[in-house]
Write a structure and sequence with these properties.
Largest sheet: none
Shape: extended
Number of strands: 0
Oligomer: single chain
Distance between the termini: 35 Å
Strand content: under 5%
Helix content: 25-40%
């Protein structure tokens, strides 16, 4: 049985406290959202939607419509 869930939009997302995750984070530069604020569930969802459907989130000049 598959289960799909998504936290409330204002939920702050944090990495899983694990040595493996910490080491993986050292090799990949973490992007900060906006002005360096913490990443929320809504921020993450919008970034994934933009990655998949970029054309829907830009106007004719290529400007971000968020």
């Amino acid at each position: 049985m598959a289960y799909f869930g998504h936290p409330v939009g204002t939920t702050v997302l944090e990495p899983v406290p694990s040595e493996l995750v910490r080491k993986a984070g050292e090799s990949v530069e973490r992007k900060k959202v906006g002005d360096g604020k913490q990443l929320t569930a809504d921020d993450h969802l919008m970034s994934r939607l933009k990655a998949s459907y970029l054309g829907m989130y830009q106007d004719e000049d290529g400007q971000d419509n968020k």
